[in-house]
Amino acid sequence: MGLELLWYIPNQADPGHRGDDVVDGHNSLGTLTAQALALERHGWDGALLGAGWGRPDTFTVATALTARTSTFRPLIAIRPGYWHPANFAAASATLDHLSGGRVLVNIVSGRDRTAAYGDTEDDPERRYARTREFLHVTRRLWTEPDVTFHGEHYRVTGSTLAVRPATPPRLYFGGASAAAERVAAAEADVQLFWGEPLDDVAERIDRLRRLSAETGREHAPLEFGLRITTLIRDTTGQAWADAEARVARMAAGAIAPNRDIHAGAVGQQRLLDLTARGEVLDGNLYTTPGRYGGGGAATTWLVGTAAEVARSLHRYRALGISHFVLSDTPYLPEIQRQGDQLLPLLRTPG
Hints:
By secondary structure, the chain is α/β, with parallel strands linked by helices. It has helices spanning 29-41, 58-67, 85-98, 124-143, 178-187, 198-214, 236-251, 266-273, 289-292, 306-319, 331-341, 343-346; strands at 4-9, 46-49, 73-78, 104-107, 147-150, 155-159, 170-174, 190-194, 223-232, 280-281, 285-286, 301-304, 321-327. The strands form 2 sheets. It has an 8-stranded parallel β-barrel, surrounded by 6 helices.
């Protein structure tokens, strides 16, 4: 099981995301390219690109960054309600071909500003059933020369891509509801977890492995990933002092709350509920940011020195996590700091 180490590029129209530096051109092609090139120089495999209505189009950003890099792998977040599977399969296969096989895909099924782009599917069960069909059709189009599929949500007849990927892009998926876990167990390549305590992650891995058998999974065994903020400093004391100072600024409104909020999402609520179990869990999993930072994957933080945070991440890896999506702000300096200090420790066993 190979180790994959990704960063996060927020792809936000507004500056200052999660306390990032507010600078002119924060989301310009030059700024985003500088981040992607820094990721290459400092040992990262690539980055998750944030998606959602109200942001610049994620697939366009991924295409631009791929054209300006040589090893950077974009984990492109997309929504089935925004794309038809045949259109997406063709676009992603083309970009994968032009980039030499660098495309990764993150399927997002949580609610968005769906009315803005004409998606009328609000029922969670139906939304996840649609996602399962989307994954199924996309996979078939990537691998088969002539696809006919007539499902409840999508239909294609005699569909063949002009370019099919030599190796299909890996499909990442998130979601903590029962409906979401059934989709992941049957069709995803990587289930992404947010920063929950070790025991909770272990329980979910066990359940997803059982579900994989129950759903009749036909693909390679499901793999697992973790999306979390990693705040590292030279000393433990400095790390916690900086973490608490940042939370104080969030509480005072000096840092805008995370806007990646989808009310009612099971995974979001699981993170927010952690604050009732304690401010610090598993030694250095900081839950307090969730009180002030809104929902989203970055509302729990691993805090400490590079060695302490690496030790915590190795504990997740021992549970079966092999894909990590890390981040901290300001984004560009932290790409360098964590790439130089944290990544070598993660690539060292034990």
